[in-house]
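[worker-b] picked up task from shared queue
[worker-b] task type: protein-ligand structure
[worker-b] ligand name resolved to MTE; SMILES cross-checked against name lookup, match
[worker-b] sequence length check passed
[worker-b] input payload:
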Amino acid sequence: MGEEKQRTPPNQRVTSKFPVLHVGPISKFDPKTWDFVVEGLVENPVKLTYEKFLKLPKTVSVSDFHCVTGWSKLDNRWEGVAFKTISDLAKPLKEAKYVTVVAEGDYTTSLPLEDLLNNDVLLAYRLDAKPLEPEHGGPLRLIVPKKYVYKSAKWVRKLRFTKEQELGYWEKRGYSNTADPWKEERYT
Ligand SMILES: Nc1nc2c(c(=O)[nH]1)N[C@H]1C(S)=C(S)[C@@H](COP(=O)(O)O)O[C@H]1N2
Ligand SMILES: [Mo]
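[worker-b] inference finished, payload out:
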């Protein structure tokens, strides 16, 4: 066994395709009515139009994508807004320890605030130099590279800062709440 870390987490296969996987319909996007909301335990609740969201400082993050069903897609170049930028705007209160991510169609997931403040976490609207396709979560999806992708919600509309962790869609159905692919945390 070498010191070097394997490129993919245990029991993941690399795919060159990009599977599309979600529950429910692909969300319809209307830039005139779309908004992005930050609520809950924050000093400064946020509500942004699509136009305003695009004016936030931009970041780029290249990362791998690991689905809990066993496929991984490597070297995805995501562009969007760092989670940290949004958090700095909203100013979490001291009691805020978790964030529930709410997507269209009531898909939710949640993460410790600390994990989301990692500098590879972003709300992405472009992938590999193109606008993010609706089937992959356009106009806006969360990207959390260090977790299985069910934590990377597509069609994100809202972040809710909370004191206790609220269980997300898959987490309620037996998938791991910590979801670390390197530790193979697939199920609870
Ligand atoms: N809103 C929403 N986001 C979601 C899901 C979903 O069902 N709804 N599924 C998750 C799962 S399990 C996976 S594997 C990825 C798939 O992303 P992709 O379709 O871009 O490959 O989206 C994640 N984000
Ligand atoms: Mo997945």
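[worker-b] attaching auto-annotations
[worker-b] The chain has a mean pLDDT of 96.
[worker-b] releasing lock
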